[in-house]
Amino acid sequence: MSVFKNKNIILGVCGGIAAYKSAELVRLMIRQGAQVQVVMTQSAKEFMAPLTFQALSGREVRSELFDLNAEAGMGHIELARWADLIVIAPATANTLAKIAHGIADDLLVTLCLATKAPLLVAPAMNQQMWRNESTQMNIELLSRRQGLSLCGPDAGEQACGDTGPGRMAEPDNILKSCGNLLKSCTESHESAHKGLRLKGKQVLITAGPTIEDIDPVRYISNRSSGKMGYAIAQAALDEGAKVILVSGPTALDAPQNAELFLVRSARQMYDTVFQRIDSVDIFIATAAVADYRPIKKIDKKIKKNADKLTIELVKNPDILKDVAALLNKPVSIGFAAETNDIESYALDKLQRKNLDMIAANKVGETEGFEGDNNELHLFWRPRVNKRKSHKKTEISSKKLPYASKKQLAEQLIDEIVLLFVTEAN
Ligand code: C5P
After folding, report:
1. Of 201, 294, 360, 384, which is the most buried if we count CB atoms within 10 A?
2. Structural domains present in the chain
């Protein structure tokens, strides 16, 4: 699988003649499976039309730091957190100087200062500007900045007629450097996360939709890609947990090393969970379980002869509620996907289902289900400690801002470890 797959990349474009090559870079990154958000400086727009980048990336180009509309969607801090990698190509002497000295007077440099993601810069300028002592001092400063890598510049003939160093590296080479950076980030992230804070713990996760058959060709189901549950399974594995993934039908590959049980209906999911729940320490229910099923499955395809058809439905068992009602219940975490009144429905579920934590998110036509990104609002109660029963049970909450489901899964596991595992040990 490409190391770019589902990676969020901010491509910063500065004002230089090489900006036209950045269009090709966007195309190459998208082809590799990345999501690319182009951020242009004001002077970049003198060289390239934002519409070109918008058409290639499928995202509106950002360039204003104080753009109320854009900020309402994904603010600049969220955008900085969203990125797995920031690439600046071409990077002008001016932008390099601003990054070196922390002058955050435009969106691009602000993002570079506000991100934890690695930064790759591909300088492009006249050879004399490149050789200038100020530029070289800035490059020297930048090379000491952790997480910043240089790609190029190449030497050769320049647009201004000079010959020398300052040509932007070719898009193919920039792409290769991006790939190397992403790969080493994934590796170091994996080894950093092998903090193994869940070593010795069993985590059971339900994921995906369930399918309730009406007849051999029709069914009732819920919209759910399973992406959030699978990402949580991976994040728990990265922390050393033994992971049992009980999944309804999805198009996803299960994380390697998870014990996978594929099910179809809510009742199959229920039985599979309860066969294994005794040894489970943490139960995370991300599945979009169908609330009702037809009272009986019809053996043959129903013919459409009648003008009206009534299908009688019966309620499915609530897996999460029943797990959380166990005498020796595991840490029980639910999801609340709501179209409205998210907070009040989430709090109601937290109490009613006797959960330790609920992760609420908004869903609708365009939000939540199939996308690779989301945002979560966590609500939790401290776990009642048998030895310290005086513990307060007020509800706490925390927002995990818009990010990839992978990042959200890691943050969620982080919170679970801090709240329910570290404390209990
Ligand atoms: O009640 P509601 O379906 O909104 O609750 C959502 C939470 O409960 C999710 O965590 C979901 O996985 C879980 N659930 C379940 N079994 C059901 C219905 C929901 O485990 N039958």
Report:
1. 360
2. 8-190 (3.40.50.1950), 194-422 (3.40.50.10300)
Q: What pLDDT, on a 0 to 100 scale, did the predictor assign at position 389?
A: 42
State the pTM of this model.
Answer: 0.60
Cis ω for the linkage preceding 90 (within 30 of 0): yes
Sign of CA dihedral 210, 216, 219, 225: positive
| Cα 168 to Cα 271: distance, rounded to the nearest angstrom | 60
Proportion of the chain above pLDDT 70, given as a percent: 93
> In ligand 1, which atom is closest to the CA atom of 316?
21
349 touches ligand 1 (CB under 6 Å): yes
Using a 6 Å cutoff on CB, does residue 318 contact ligand 1?
yes
Indicate whether residue 346 lines ligand 1 (CB < 6 A): no
Query: Residue 158 — very low, low, confident or very high, per pLDDT cuts 50/70/90?
Result: confident
- Within 10 angstroms of residue 306's Cβ, the number of other Cβ atoms is 8
Q: Which of 175, 154, 179 is nearest to 18 (CA)?
A: 154
Q: Is 151 a catalytic residue?
A: no
For residue 424, count other CB atoms closer than 10 A to its CB: 10
The residue annotated as part of the active site, out of 151, 160, 178, 185, is 160
Rounded to whole angstroms, how far apart are CA atoms 184 and 118?
10
Please report, for residues 96, 129, 423, the alpha-carbon distance to residue 141 in angstroms, rounded to integers and kept in the order given: 10, 17, 42
**Helices (H), ranges, 376-420:** 405-416
CB-ligand 1 contact for 247 (6 Å cutoff)? no
Extract the tokens encoding 107.
């969106």
